[in-house]
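Dear colleagues,

As part of the handover before I leave the project, I'm documenting each prediction I ran so the next person doesn't have to rerun anything. This entry is a single chain, and its sequence is reproduced below.
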Amino acid sequence: MSVSIKEVMNTSPVMPVMVINQIDQAVPLARALVEGGLKVLEITLRTPVALEAIRRIKAEVPGAIVGAGTIINIETLNNAIAAGAEFIVSPGVTDSLIAAAIASGVPILPGVATSSEVMRLLEKGITAMKFFPAEAAGGIPMLKSFGGPLPQVTFCPTGGVNPKNAPEYLALSNVACVGGSWMAPADLVDAGDWAEITRRAAEAAALKN
């Protein structure tokens, strides 16, 4: 069953951004996050095992909504879709990537940092966007500024978002969710401390509502 990008963004207040270095960590990590209440998982295509991780999590973790991040061109888009990604996330936008994503029918959460990028996407009928890199690009004040002239856009801020500032982001009317990696830092993943990751995921899942 396919989901819309708005459904993806409204499922959990925090979208884990996952960098998976060892393929045997993929399924237990995903299970820990889903058990904690974070069902939407963004697997970044930054490692050689990322595509296989998407395949395994989709096959072995019931309830997970598995997406692919770091989609930067048509090749990575096609690879992610072939691996079974249910949605895709990009750090920025190009005309060719957006056209290919729209043609594919797979929901996309494209990255923006300026009002001009937002307007370009609005022209293509896209109203859900990733604000990246959130803190470096102006953070909460920037999102508040977007809200005035561009109230029809819903954002997922990612980049520099952490447990301390996440509630402030989530309190904004134009923010549906935030992206972050603090629930599953590399040291906990490498140690296989799935219980602590589940605990952190549950805290993150309780940030809104």
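The chain has a mean pLDDT of 96. The domain at 5-202 is CATH 3.20.20.70 (TIM Barrel).

All the best with the project,
I.
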